[in-house]
Specification:
Elements: E1 6-10, H1 15-30, E2 34-38, H2 44-54, E3 58-62, E4 77-82, E5 102-105, E6 122-124, E7 143-148, H3 157-160, E8 163-166, E9 169-172, H4 173-182, H5 192-206, H6 214-227, H7 232-240, E10 247-250, E11 265-267, H8 272-280, E12 282-287, H9 295-302, E13 307-310, E14 332-334, H10 339-347, H11 350-367, H12 370-382
Parallel strand pairs: 1-2, 1-3, 3-4, 4-5, 5-6, 7-10, 7-12, 10-11, 12-13, 13-14
Antiparallel strand pairs: 8-9
Helix pairs in contact: 1-12, 9-11
Length: about 375
Protein backbone atom coordinates (compact mmCIF):
# COMPACT_ATOMS: atom_id res chain seq x y z
CA UNK A 1 0.00 0.00 0.00
CA UNK A 2 1.26 3.49 -0.86
CA UNK A 3 2.35 5.86 1.92
CA UNK A 4 -0.47 7.84 3.50
CA UNK A 5 -0.58 11.45 2.30
CA UNK A 6 -3.98 12.73 3.44
CA UNK A 7 -6.30 11.87 6.34
CA UNK A 8 -9.78 13.14 7.25
CA UNK A 9 -10.67 13.20 10.97
CA UNK A 10 -14.17 13.83 12.33
CA UNK A 11 -15.87 13.74 15.70
CA UNK A 12 -18.86 15.17 17.52
CA UNK A 13 -18.84 18.53 19.28
CA UNK A 14 -17.55 17.27 22.64
CA UNK A 15 -14.58 18.67 24.55
CA UNK A 16 -12.83 15.34 25.16
CA UNK A 17 -13.32 14.20 21.57
CA UNK A 18 -12.12 17.56 20.20
CA UNK A 19 -8.93 17.19 22.24
CA UNK A 20 -8.52 13.68 20.85
CA UNK A 21 -8.89 14.76 17.22
CA UNK A 22 -6.59 17.77 17.63
CA UNK A 23 -3.96 15.55 19.24
CA UNK A 24 -4.06 13.14 16.31
CA UNK A 25 -4.11 16.01 13.82
CA UNK A 26 -0.92 17.50 15.24
CA UNK A 27 0.77 14.08 15.26
CA UNK A 28 -0.15 13.27 11.66
CA UNK A 29 0.94 16.71 10.47
CA UNK A 30 4.31 16.27 12.18
CA UNK A 31 4.72 13.17 9.99
CA UNK A 32 4.12 15.26 6.87
CA UNK A 33 0.53 14.08 6.38
CA UNK A 34 -2.11 16.59 5.32
CA UNK A 35 -5.14 16.53 7.63
CA UNK A 36 -8.65 17.93 7.45
CA UNK A 37 -10.72 17.90 10.65
CA UNK A 38 -14.36 18.43 11.49
CA UNK A 39 -16.20 18.69 14.79
CA UNK A 40 -19.53 17.56 13.46
CA UNK A 41 -20.52 14.63 11.30
CA UNK A 42 -21.08 15.15 7.58
CA UNK A 43 -24.04 13.55 5.86
CA UNK A 44 -23.40 11.34 2.85
CA UNK A 45 -23.73 14.15 0.30
CA UNK A 46 -21.23 16.40 2.05
CA UNK A 47 -18.88 13.50 2.74
CA UNK A 48 -18.83 12.68 -0.98
CA UNK A 49 -17.94 16.30 -1.72
CA UNK A 50 -15.08 16.17 0.78
CA UNK A 51 -13.75 12.89 -0.62
CA UNK A 52 -13.90 14.25 -4.17
CA UNK A 53 -12.07 17.45 -3.21
CA UNK A 54 -9.59 16.30 -0.55
CA UNK A 55 -9.06 12.67 -1.64
CA UNK A 56 -8.06 11.31 1.78
CA UNK A 57 -6.37 7.92 2.01
CA UNK A 58 -8.80 7.12 4.81
CA UNK A 59 -11.48 8.69 6.97
CA UNK A 60 -11.27 8.24 10.74
CA UNK A 61 -14.35 9.17 12.73
CA UNK A 62 -14.63 9.09 16.50
CA UNK A 63 -17.96 7.61 17.63
CA UNK A 64 -19.35 7.01 14.15
CA UNK A 65 -19.01 4.01 11.85
CA UNK A 66 -19.32 3.88 8.09
CA UNK A 67 -22.85 2.42 8.20
CA UNK A 68 -23.96 5.42 10.27
CA UNK A 69 -23.15 7.84 7.43
CA UNK A 70 -26.51 8.21 5.70
CA UNK A 71 -26.40 7.66 1.91
CA UNK A 72 -22.65 7.21 1.52
CA UNK A 73 -21.21 4.47 -0.69
CA UNK A 74 -17.90 5.89 -1.95
CA UNK A 75 -15.12 3.32 -2.14
CA UNK A 76 -12.81 4.71 0.51
CA UNK A 77 -11.33 3.22 3.66
CA UNK A 78 -13.17 4.10 6.86
CA UNK A 79 -11.96 3.66 10.44
CA UNK A 80 -14.39 4.07 13.34
CA UNK A 81 -13.08 4.80 16.83
CA UNK A 82 -15.74 3.74 19.36
CA UNK A 83 -15.09 5.76 22.53
CA UNK A 84 -18.57 5.55 24.07
CA UNK A 85 -21.86 3.69 23.69
CA UNK A 86 -23.91 6.88 23.36
CA UNK A 87 -23.46 10.56 22.60
CA UNK A 88 -24.03 13.41 25.09
CA UNK A 89 -27.48 13.99 23.55
CA UNK A 90 -28.43 10.39 24.43
CA UNK A 91 -28.24 9.06 20.87
CA UNK A 92 -26.93 5.48 20.86
CA UNK A 93 -23.66 4.80 19.02
CA UNK A 94 -23.58 1.03 19.49
CA UNK A 95 -26.96 0.68 17.77
CA UNK A 96 -26.29 0.40 14.03
CA UNK A 97 -22.50 0.35 14.33
CA UNK A 98 -20.77 -1.42 11.43
CA UNK A 99 -19.30 -1.25 7.95
CA UNK A 100 -15.92 0.25 8.89
CA UNK A 101 -12.73 -1.43 7.69
CA UNK A 102 -11.41 -1.22 11.24
CA UNK A 103 -12.96 -0.43 14.63
CA UNK A 104 -10.89 0.98 17.48
CA UNK A 105 -12.06 0.63 21.09
CA UNK A 106 -10.69 1.21 24.58
CA UNK A 107 -12.43 -2.00 25.72
CA UNK A 108 -13.41 -5.17 23.92
CA UNK A 109 -16.25 -4.09 21.56
CA UNK A 110 -18.55 -6.65 23.20
CA UNK A 111 -18.25 -4.70 26.44
CA UNK A 112 -19.39 -1.60 24.59
CA UNK A 113 -22.45 -3.26 23.10
CA UNK A 114 -20.95 -4.00 19.66
CA UNK A 115 -20.94 -7.57 18.34
CA UNK A 116 -18.21 -9.30 16.35
CA UNK A 117 -20.47 -9.06 13.29
CA UNK A 118 -20.58 -5.28 13.71
CA UNK A 119 -16.82 -5.02 14.19
CA UNK A 120 -15.18 -8.03 12.49
CA UNK A 121 -11.77 -6.35 12.65
CA UNK A 122 -10.99 -4.38 15.77
CA UNK A 123 -7.99 -3.19 17.75
CA UNK A 124 -7.43 -1.49 21.09
CA UNK A 125 -6.54 2.20 20.87
CA UNK A 126 -6.31 4.31 23.99
CA UNK A 127 -6.30 8.03 24.61
CA UNK A 128 -2.90 9.72 24.53
CA UNK A 129 -1.20 12.86 25.80
CA UNK A 130 0.31 16.09 24.52
CA UNK A 131 3.49 16.43 26.55
CA UNK A 132 3.72 20.16 25.80
CA UNK A 133 0.38 20.77 27.53
CA UNK A 134 0.63 18.26 30.35
CA UNK A 135 3.98 18.55 32.11
CA UNK A 136 5.31 19.23 35.64
CA UNK A 137 5.14 22.96 36.34
CA UNK A 138 7.47 22.74 39.31
CA UNK A 139 5.01 24.65 41.51
CA UNK A 140 4.32 23.31 45.03
CA UNK A 141 0.92 21.57 45.35
CA UNK A 142 -1.81 23.31 47.31
CA UNK A 143 -4.43 20.53 47.45
CA UNK A 144 -4.13 16.97 48.68
CA UNK A 145 -6.58 15.39 46.24
CA UNK A 146 -8.39 16.68 43.16
CA UNK A 147 -10.62 15.09 40.57
CA UNK A 148 -12.07 16.25 37.26
CA UNK A 149 -15.11 14.25 36.22
CA UNK A 150 -18.83 13.75 35.92
CA UNK A 151 -21.25 12.69 38.65
CA UNK A 152 -24.66 11.32 37.78
CA UNK A 153 -27.40 13.40 39.35
CA UNK A 154 -28.74 11.81 42.54
CA UNK A 155 -31.86 9.72 42.01
CA UNK A 156 -34.80 11.09 43.96
CA UNK A 157 -37.34 8.79 45.67
CA UNK A 158 -40.17 9.99 43.45
CA UNK A 159 -38.17 9.05 40.36
CA UNK A 160 -38.10 5.41 41.42
CA UNK A 161 -41.89 5.33 41.09
CA UNK A 162 -41.81 6.65 37.51
CA UNK A 163 -43.27 4.21 34.97
CA UNK A 164 -41.19 3.41 31.88
CA UNK A 165 -42.70 1.76 28.81
CA UNK A 166 -40.97 -0.13 26.00
CA UNK A 167 -42.16 -2.71 23.49
CA UNK A 168 -45.50 -3.24 25.21
CA UNK A 169 -43.97 -3.62 28.68
CA UNK A 170 -44.44 -1.10 31.49
CA UNK A 171 -42.46 -1.16 34.72
CA UNK A 172 -41.24 1.21 37.39
CA UNK A 173 -37.81 2.78 37.19
CA UNK A 174 -37.08 1.49 40.69
CA UNK A 175 -37.73 -2.08 39.54
CA UNK A 176 -34.98 -1.79 36.93
CA UNK A 177 -32.61 -0.20 39.45
CA UNK A 178 -33.20 -3.12 41.83
CA UNK A 179 -32.46 -5.62 39.04
CA UNK A 180 -29.15 -3.90 38.29
CA UNK A 181 -28.17 -3.95 41.96
CA UNK A 182 -29.10 -7.64 42.29
CA UNK A 183 -26.92 -8.44 39.28
CA UNK A 184 -23.95 -6.62 40.82
CA UNK A 185 -23.78 -3.99 38.10
CA UNK A 186 -21.87 -0.87 39.10
CA UNK A 187 -19.87 1.85 37.38
CA UNK A 188 -16.62 -0.06 37.88
CA UNK A 189 -18.07 -3.48 37.07
CA UNK A 190 -20.36 -3.51 34.06
CA UNK A 191 -20.26 -3.67 30.32
CA UNK A 192 -22.94 -2.83 27.79
CA UNK A 193 -23.47 -6.48 26.88
CA UNK A 194 -24.03 -7.45 30.52
CA UNK A 195 -26.26 -4.43 31.11
CA UNK A 196 -28.42 -5.36 28.14
CA UNK A 197 -28.68 -8.99 29.25
CA UNK A 198 -29.90 -7.84 32.66
CA UNK A 199 -32.51 -5.44 31.29
CA UNK A 200 -33.66 -7.81 28.54
CA UNK A 201 -34.04 -10.60 31.09
CA UNK A 202 -36.28 -8.38 33.20
CA UNK A 203 -38.39 -7.28 30.22
CA UNK A 204 -38.75 -10.78 28.74
CA UNK A 205 -39.76 -12.07 32.14
CA UNK A 206 -42.83 -9.86 31.72
CA UNK A 207 -43.31 -10.46 27.99
CA UNK A 208 -41.58 -13.48 26.48
CA UNK A 209 -41.61 -12.13 22.91
CA UNK A 210 -40.35 -8.66 23.87
CA UNK A 211 -38.29 -6.95 21.17
CA UNK A 212 -36.13 -3.85 21.81
CA UNK A 213 -37.45 -0.58 20.43
CA UNK A 214 -36.14 2.99 20.54
CA UNK A 215 -37.43 3.45 24.09
CA UNK A 216 -35.35 0.44 25.17
CA UNK A 217 -32.13 2.12 24.07
CA UNK A 218 -33.17 5.33 25.80
CA UNK A 219 -33.61 3.32 29.00
CA UNK A 220 -30.08 1.90 28.61
CA UNK A 221 -28.69 5.41 28.32
CA UNK A 222 -30.67 6.53 31.37
CA UNK A 223 -29.32 3.62 33.42
CA UNK A 224 -25.73 4.26 32.35
CA UNK A 225 -25.93 7.99 32.95
CA UNK A 226 -28.03 8.20 36.10
CA UNK A 227 -27.88 4.87 37.95
CA UNK A 228 -24.42 3.46 37.32
CA UNK A 229 -22.67 6.81 37.72
CA UNK A 230 -24.54 8.18 40.72
CA UNK A 231 -22.99 6.64 43.83
CA UNK A 232 -19.52 5.10 43.95
CA UNK A 233 -17.59 8.10 42.69
CA UNK A 234 -19.10 10.31 45.37
CA UNK A 235 -18.94 7.68 48.13
CA UNK A 236 -15.18 7.28 47.84
CA UNK A 237 -14.59 11.02 47.89
CA UNK A 238 -16.53 11.12 51.16
CA UNK A 239 -14.20 8.44 52.51
CA UNK A 240 -11.23 10.61 51.50
CA UNK A 241 -12.77 13.50 53.44
CA UNK A 242 -12.25 11.50 56.64
CA UNK A 243 -8.51 11.81 55.98
CA UNK A 244 -8.19 15.30 54.49
CA UNK A 245 -10.45 18.26 53.79
CA UNK A 246 -7.98 19.65 51.24
CA UNK A 247 -9.77 18.38 48.16
CA UNK A 248 -11.23 20.11 45.10
CA UNK A 249 -13.77 18.74 42.64
CA UNK A 250 -14.19 19.90 39.04
CA UNK A 251 -16.56 18.69 36.35
CA UNK A 252 -20.24 18.47 35.50
CA UNK A 253 -23.35 16.64 36.60
CA UNK A 254 -24.69 16.41 40.12
CA UNK A 255 -21.75 17.47 42.32
CA UNK A 256 -23.48 20.61 43.54
CA UNK A 257 -26.55 18.57 44.52
CA UNK A 258 -24.60 16.50 47.05
CA UNK A 259 -24.67 18.36 50.39
CA UNK A 260 -21.45 16.74 51.62
CA UNK A 261 -19.41 17.41 48.48
CA UNK A 262 -20.93 20.76 47.50
CA UNK A 263 -18.43 22.84 49.55
CA UNK A 264 -15.54 21.24 47.66
CA UNK A 265 -17.03 21.59 44.18
CA UNK A 266 -15.57 24.36 42.02
CA UNK A 267 -17.31 23.93 38.66
CA UNK A 268 -16.78 22.67 35.10
CA UNK A 269 -13.30 22.57 33.60
CA UNK A 270 -12.62 22.02 29.92
CA UNK A 271 -9.43 23.69 28.68
CA UNK A 272 -6.42 21.36 28.63
CA UNK A 273 -4.14 24.10 29.98
CA UNK A 274 -6.47 24.63 32.95
CA UNK A 275 -6.72 20.90 33.61
CA UNK A 276 -2.93 20.66 33.56
CA UNK A 277 -2.68 23.52 36.07
CA UNK A 278 -5.16 21.88 38.45
CA UNK A 279 -3.33 18.56 38.28
CA UNK A 280 -0.01 20.28 38.96
CA UNK A 281 -1.44 21.87 42.11
CA UNK A 282 -2.47 18.42 43.43
CA UNK A 283 -0.60 15.84 45.47
CA UNK A 284 -2.87 13.06 44.23
CA UNK A 285 -5.50 12.76 41.48
CA UNK A 286 -8.58 10.62 42.17
CA UNK A 287 -10.06 8.39 39.45
CA UNK A 288 -13.16 6.19 39.61
CA UNK A 289 -14.66 4.29 36.69
CA UNK A 290 -14.61 1.13 34.59
CA UNK A 291 -11.94 2.44 32.18
CA UNK A 292 -8.62 2.84 33.95
CA UNK A 293 -6.79 3.91 30.77
CA UNK A 294 -8.76 7.14 31.06
CA UNK A 295 -7.56 10.60 30.07
CA UNK A 296 -7.90 11.69 33.72
CA UNK A 297 -5.39 9.02 34.78
CA UNK A 298 -3.01 9.76 31.92
CA UNK A 299 -3.17 13.53 32.43
CA UNK A 300 -2.04 13.05 36.02
CA UNK A 301 0.78 10.73 34.97
CA UNK A 302 1.97 13.10 32.25
CA UNK A 303 2.13 15.92 34.81
CA UNK A 304 4.14 13.72 37.18
CA UNK A 305 1.31 13.42 39.73
CA UNK A 306 0.34 9.93 40.99
CA UNK A 307 -3.26 8.92 40.21
CA UNK A 308 -5.45 6.91 42.59
CA UNK A 309 -7.13 4.20 40.52
CA UNK A 310 -9.97 1.86 41.49
CA UNK A 311 -9.78 -1.82 40.59
CA UNK A 312 -11.98 -3.24 37.82
CA UNK A 313 -12.54 -6.75 36.39
CA UNK A 314 -10.65 -5.62 33.27
CA UNK A 315 -7.33 -4.52 34.77
CA UNK A 316 -5.38 -7.62 33.73
CA UNK A 317 -6.94 -7.85 30.26
CA UNK A 318 -4.84 -6.85 27.21
CA UNK A 319 -6.60 -3.47 27.19
CA UNK A 320 -6.42 -3.01 30.98
CA UNK A 321 -4.11 -0.69 32.86
CA UNK A 322 -1.90 -3.55 34.11
CA UNK A 323 -0.79 -4.15 30.52
CA UNK A 324 0.74 -0.67 30.37
CA UNK A 325 1.52 0.52 33.91
CA UNK A 326 2.38 -1.01 37.28
CA UNK A 327 0.66 -0.45 40.61
CA UNK A 328 3.12 1.21 42.99
CA UNK A 329 5.42 2.26 40.14
CA UNK A 330 3.17 4.50 38.04
CA UNK A 331 -0.14 4.72 39.95
CA UNK A 332 -1.80 3.46 43.14
CA UNK A 333 -4.72 1.05 43.34
CA UNK A 334 -7.36 1.46 46.02
CA UNK A 335 -10.50 -0.39 47.10
CA UNK A 336 -13.67 1.01 48.61
CA UNK A 337 -12.69 -0.27 52.03
CA UNK A 338 -9.09 1.01 52.07
CA UNK A 339 -9.07 4.26 50.12
CA UNK A 340 -8.71 6.30 53.31
CA UNK A 341 -5.68 4.30 54.39
CA UNK A 342 -4.12 4.56 50.92
CA UNK A 343 -4.58 8.32 50.77
CA UNK A 344 -3.35 8.84 54.33
CA UNK A 345 -0.19 6.82 53.70
CA UNK A 346 0.62 8.58 50.43
CA UNK A 347 0.08 12.08 51.82
CA UNK A 348 2.76 11.33 54.42
CA UNK A 349 5.31 10.08 51.87
CA UNK A 350 6.37 12.89 49.56
CA UNK A 351 9.38 10.97 48.27
CA UNK A 352 7.19 8.05 47.17
CA UNK A 353 4.75 10.37 45.43
CA UNK A 354 7.59 12.14 43.63
CA UNK A 355 9.23 8.90 42.52
CA UNK A 356 6.01 7.37 41.23
CA UNK A 357 5.07 10.62 39.48
CA UNK A 358 8.42 10.79 37.72
CA UNK A 359 8.21 7.15 36.64
CA UNK A 360 4.65 7.63 35.41
CA UNK A 361 5.61 10.60 33.25
CA UNK A 362 8.58 8.70 31.83
CA UNK A 363 6.29 5.82 30.82
CA UNK A 364 3.83 8.24 29.20
CA UNK A 365 6.63 9.85 27.18
CA UNK A 366 7.86 6.42 26.16
CA UNK A 367 4.59 4.93 24.92
CA UNK A 368 1.52 7.14 25.24
CA UNK A 369 1.89 10.37 23.27
CA UNK A 370 -0.26 11.23 20.28
CA UNK A 371 2.49 10.37 17.81
CA UNK A 372 2.48 6.82 19.22
CA UNK A 373 -1.24 6.53 18.45
CA UNK A 374 -0.79 8.01 14.97
CA UNK A 375 1.98 5.49 14.26
CA UNK A 376 -0.28 2.63 15.35
CA UNK A 377 -3.13 3.86 13.14
CA UNK A 378 -0.85 4.09 10.10
CA UNK A 379 0.57 0.61 10.74
CA UNK A 380 -2.92 -0.87 11.15
CA UNK A 381 -4.13 0.90 8.01
CA UNK A 382 -1.24 -0.46 5.96
CA UNK A 383 -2.25 -3.99 7.00
CA UNK A 384 -5.86 -3.69 5.81
Amino acid sequence: MSPVKRVALFTMSDTVMINLVLGLKRAFEAMGIEVVTGFDYLNGHRMRMLVDWFKPDFILEVNRSRNQIVDFDDKIHHIGWLEASYRPNGQRIDQGWGGSDLTYCNLDPLQMGVSRQQAPRWEILHFAMDEKTYFPFGAPPVWDVTTIGYLGRPIQPQELAAVLSTGGVSLMFGEICAALAADGLAETDFDSDRLQNCVLGLLRGKKSDYRPDEAYYQILTLLDNRVLRACGRADNLKRILRVTREIKIFGGGGWAEDPTLRPFYVGPLFRPSEKSAIVNLSRLVYHYGRISMHERVMEAMCCGVPPLVNRTPYDDRPFGIDSYFNDGDHFFYYDDDNIGDVVGRLLKDENLRRRVGEQARARILERHLWHHRAEQILADFQSL
